[in-house]
Amino acid sequence: MSPLVTASRDFPARPRSAGGAAADAWGNAPYPVVVADRHGGLAYLNKAAQLLWPQASRGDWLHEAVPSWLSDAHTYISDGLRGMDADVLGGPVHDRFFEAHATPGADGDVVWWLIDDTDRRLAVTALRTAQDRSEALSEVSATLLSTLNVPRCMEVAAFMAAQHLAEAAVLIAPAQGRRHPMTYAVQGGPVTQISQPIDPHSVPGLAEALQGFPPVPARWIDPARIPDWVLPDGFTKPLGSVIVTPLPGHGVPAGALILLRSSTEQRFTEGEEVFARLFAARAGAALSAARLYTEQADVTATLMRELMPPSLTRVHGVDYAGNYRAAKDHEHVGGDFYDVHPGADRSQETLVVLGDVAGKGLEAAVLTGKIRNTLHALLPLAGDHQRVLELLNGALLSFHHTRFATLVLASVRRRGGKAHLRLTSAGHMPPLIIRADGEVEAAATRGTVVGALPRVTSHTVETVLKPGETCLLYTDGITEARGGPLGDEMFGEERLRRALSECAGIPVEALVERVQMLAAQWLGTGQHDDMAVVAISAPKTATLSVVDGHVSGKNWEER
Amino acid sequence: MSTTTSAAQALLWQAVADADENAAIAVLYDAMDEGLDEETLLLDVIAPVQEKVGTEWAAGRITVAQEHAATAISERAMAALAHRHPTRPSQPARRGRITVACIDGEWHAFPARLVSETLRLRGWHVDYLGAQTPTPHLIAHLHRTGSDAALLSCSLPTHLPAAHAAITACQAIGVPVMAGGRAFGPDGRYARALGADHWAPDARTAATALEAGLDRPAPAAIRQTIDDLPHLDDQEYTLVIQNRAQLVKQTLADLEERFPAMRAYSTAQRDRTTEDLAHIIGFLATALYVDDARLFTTFIAWTAGILSARNVPVTSLRLGLDVLVGHLRDFPRALTFLTAATDALHTTSDHTGPGITA
């Protein structure tokens, strides 16, 4: 700075206001203090200010000594464009950030007090980042936890990763056979899922991540070595930086996550790597939970298939329909059961079984499975109901449980348009027969329960169903349904009979549905036992046969 | 509507009313041979006939058993139609996967069945869960299959609270819900009130909306009942539904006092009156739930229509409402609805509206 210039501006050689006790007080102040005159000349710097600007000295031009944000503010104040007590100014000085406060000095000088605000600002930024991240993590958790479906969970995880962590994300699930299910997401774009064979060793750190080893630092991964299959379809820019992180699961890895950023963006920082790991931990936990649920649900479904009631249809010219409602809404099976075992041909009897094991829920359902299997094995003896019940009784007594069962056996054969039935009740409600004129009669069969006593007795009755007549087998869940408009009444056999008498001649599936519906409406939202209904009917109209999609042979079955 | 369609409709109605399965199937096959496609048969022949079954019952021209029989025949005919379609079984689903179910407690499965068949024809993979699907089963199914959407059908308005629970449960696991069925109101107003993502008045609209794509709900926005329906805070719905049996008993006793003819009722007649009262209170509670008097007045007007079709004096209905007013003095919203319904009884004899088919 030329002293000549200073002199030419009629600048005093020494700042007046800087002298005396006040200046001494500033001189030792812990904050930088700069005094500038109204012409923009630097009048004084205290020790702290000299540390900031070691090159500056009195008499220099302020705008040549300090950053422009400060000298500009000074000019505004000197020109009266800005008040001293206007908003606090601030700006960078070297690699730090200062707030500048102005106070009036002598002779129109302005005293600038500078306060180092760097650490507070860093803290605020860090806090905001942390808040953003925890908000993102909470959103991620809520979204991931909402689904127990594995593909959907992967979709959500990849989408969120592309949303919050990177420009694009690829989620690679553990191999199923030789293929890895892959989920690709690009920020603001769609999520796509495919299953393909890949070589995990072709991506640095991927094979390790899939085996659950700690992640390889992002700076070790050379973007140039990333194979093309890693890049999602919408990701066309050159690759800048990459994170490969494992998705920790329940003991076994749940897969790996690759995060991609193009070269035009900032590289992943260490903080972002840490955040990516936090994200991966949540995604991995959610994926593992979904996978566990799916496995359990598959196991349950497989085991349950054997216990589910069969779907019934017409067999050898006789109509059958069944309907089942388990006691607990979240279960599909319970202690009631039914089966229809078709005869070998039309001349043979079809055996219908409907029963009720003491108790409800899965344990009861397991026992129904055993009873159904046993009865299946006893089919060759079905000509003698008493014999079947005796053998079943023996088998039940030898099982390791204390439950007994009631059941009804019905052997059915169609002859000349009518259905001939042999009915045997073993401690069960007698079947109800709905005649064509709406009369409802109970079959006069009776017998003891099975699985309780060493001996069983039973009495079998025979009956004939004319076309349109129906025999209804049901469990006590129907008649003992508690509720009704008054809240605590039993549905009862009387109401059931009354309802049935209005249903003469209707199709079997409509009948069983109507019975279940009445019982369900009677219950309202109340508790109930298992409820099973089976209807057996001699068809009213000519038997239908669908051959090659055409109705053929009307009346062919009449004889 | 083409003459073929209306002719087929008339023939199918005859077959269904006679409970003649073979005739019903023959009508559909003939119509197919004449060039009607399957969707037209489903939606312009079978659906209107099924609608007619309902109105004939309401008019007292067929019994409830006949109604069930007719529905069963329609269902069998529909199954036969699917069976005949030569390309369908091998045809893979071109679109996404959809779950169709009736709300827990809802037995009217036919509309849901029609929608399922329509969507299948249009290339969706449809899981049809059938009548009265317990919500836990529905949710487990959605988790297992990852359905793109759940279509929930509800015909009887008294199941709307259950529908609400099912809707929020589906959305909480990120599955969008399309509501359909008469219970949601003629313009879908209750579907909106209960926060469904979409409402469709018929199968074609449902298919179109699905083809356009439904956005997934934000799962973070899990809602409680009270968030959708802040008026429930007054507890009127809760108290009425909890004390329903008690209300029925008291109303019945009061009615006997004021309507001495009732004392001579047979058990069956008494049972029916009790059921009617329970229905009235059920609908009142539902109207309180969605906070809409129209739900209640429509039902009362419709009940009046049913009663007159069966030669039961409507006076008893008016008396019933009057007695309820006496028991619900402390329930301002309920009182408003009861008054509106009583007024409606004086002014209208409208027969259309939500159905009860008990």
Q: What would the keywords be for this entry?
A:
heterodimer, A: about 550 residues, alpha+beta, Beta-Lactamase, Phosphatase 2c, domain 1, 3 domains, five-stranded antiparallel β-sheet, elongated, disordered N terminus, disordered C terminus, B: about 350 residues, alpha/beta, Methyltransferase, Methionine Synthase (B12-binding Domains), Chain A, domain 1, Rossmann fold, Globin-like, 16 helices, about 60% helix, flat
CATH architecture of the largest domain in chain B: 3-Layer(aba) Sandwich
Just name the CATH architecture of the largest domain in chain A. 4-Layer Sandwich
CATH superfamily of the largest domain in chain B: Cobalamin-binding domain
Rg measurement of chain A, Å? 43 Å
Secondary-structure element sequence of chain B?
A: HHHHEHEHEHEHEHHHHHHHH
Roughly what fraction of the amino acids of chain B lie in strands? Answer: 5-15%
Number of extended strands of chain B: 5
Shape of chain B: flat
How many structural domains does the protein architecture of chain B include?
3
**Residue share in helix of chain B:** 55-70%
Radius of gyration of chain B: 22 Å
- Largest sheet of chain B, described in full? 5 strands, parallel
Give the percentage of residues in beta strands of chain A. 25-35%
- This entry's quaternary arrangement is heterodimer
Strand order of the largest sheet of chain B: 2-1-3-4-5
Query: Which structural category fits the helices and strands of chain B?
Result: alpha/beta
Task: Give the class of chain A from helix and strand content and strand pairing.
Answer: alpha+beta
